[in-house]
Design goal:
By secondary structure, the protein is α/β, with parallel strands linked by helices. It folds into 2 domains: about 1-40; about 75-350, Alpha/Beta hydrolase fold, catalytic domain (Rossmann fold). It is built from 10 helices and 12 strands. The strands form 2 sheets. The chain has a 10-stranded mixed beta sheet with strand order 1-2-4-3-5-6-7-10-9-8, sandwiched between helices. The radius of gyration is 20 Å and the shape is globular.
């Protein structure tokens, strides 16, 4: 066994210890082939395509092999898998703990729960949103649960079913209990726990914000739908295509602080759903801007009012059904847009819960 081969195998072992299993496998394959050339950069294409009929119909599944953690910091950061069971339901997850979070006092570490869209997975979503990069800068722990195919054939969160829209039941109960478990395990700051998601994940994030306002201090919804907008598959398909009805405005009472991103050219989830999430908020301050790559947006900042938190609504001009400012290393991303992950974290970290001093007692 030559020196170069031994070195490659040592590097592969290090990647395995830090959770970089895809990179480790590729490195081992190179070593076995006797390939001594530098690793080629992955070739990817943008996957900002339509998440066709994301409830039950056929969809185009894009197979990706993301590498969510950039080289240079993997020896210090932790990217670890786990599994959790509550009330007979189980969920797998990936947990990102950056070195910057590990260096902080435990009680000072925020936690962000990230909910992927249909056909996605935890690693894919982490790679596409680049949330771990921003979490590293801010010392945040990030939790990525992954929907099981046995729960939904296309791995969608079941936001549109009444049994999954209530506190103490179904997926909201499972995800809240998982969040509590990780908060306790990592001794995270209970006053700074947040939830965000894309599409079906964004809809479930809004459900969690309404069902567990004592757990989540703020909510981020990207290309999603408002809590209670549908109660079965047919009503879900309808609201996705036409937008939530105007009566949704009255349901905004009790809304937690929320930041919304939605493309005005989204062919999968009507942009009216994004507006419905902030419906009922006080009139806001409107500003226009462009991303670094020139993508236009309109940002409306709504102040807090009695019974509901403040809100931001970002209308992304010309954008489709994809995470704004994301990376082509993951699926459903719009790389030239404003950096939604950075803006979400900025919004989140400006909010602390006043209801989270004690561990949750609800199921």
């Amino acid at each position: 066994m030559n020196t170069l081969f031994s070195g490659l195998m040592r590097d592969a072992a290090q990647l395995t210890r830090t959770g970089r299993l895809v990179d480790a496998t590729q490195l081992i394959q190179r070593a076995l082939r006797g390939d001594t050339s530098p690793a080629e950069a992955p070739t990817t294409t943008s996957r900002a395509m339509v998440e066709d009929d994301v409830i039950e119909a056929q969809v185009r599944v894009v197979e990706v092999h993301p590498t969510p953690e950039p080289r240079g910091s993997e020896a210090a950061d932790a990217w670890t898998p786990g599994s959790f069971t509550h009330q007979g339901r189980s969920v797998d997850y990936m947990l990102f703990v950056p070195a910057s979070a590990s260096a902080q006092p435990a009680a000072a570490r925020p936690l962000v729960l990230m909910l992927h869209g249909c056909t996605q997975g935890a690693a894919d979503f982490a790679a596409g949103t680049r949330m771990n990069e921003h979490a590293r800068e801010n010392g945040c722990i990030v939790l990525y649960p992954e929907q099981a195919k046995r729960a939904h054939g296309q791995k969608c969160w079941n936001w549109f079913k009444t049994q999954h829209q209530q506190r103490g039941r179904g997926e909201p109960a499972l995800l809240a209990a998982l969040t509590e478990h990780i908060v306790a395990q990592q001794q995270a700051d209970r006053s700074r726990v947040y939830v965000a998601g894309l599409s079906a994940g964004g809809a479930m994030a809004d459900v969690l914000g309404h069902c567990y306002p004592d757990l989540y201090a703020a909510v981020g919804v990207h290309s999603g739908l408002p809590h209670g907008a549908a109660n079965d598959m047919m009503s879900a398909l309808n609201v996705m295509r036409t937008g939530a009805p105007e009566m949704r405005a009255g349901a905004a009472k009790g809304s937690p602080p929320t930041i919304v991103f939605h493309g005005d050219a989204d062919p999968t989830v009507h942009p009216g759903n994004g507006r419905a999430i902030v419906a009922g908020a006080l009139p806001g301050t409107v500003s226009e801007g462009r991303s670094a790559a020139g993508r236009r947006y309109t940002r409306t900042v709504h102040p807090a009012s009695p019974g509901r938190g403040d809100a931001e609504h970002w209308l992304l001009h010309g954008a489709g059904h994809a995470w704004s400012g994301g990376s082509t290393a993951g699926s459903y991303t719009q790389p030239d847009g404003v950096d939604a992950s950075r803006e979400m974290l900025r919004f989140f970290l400006a909010h602390r819960s006043t209801l989270a001093s004690e561990p949750q007692r609800a199921p």
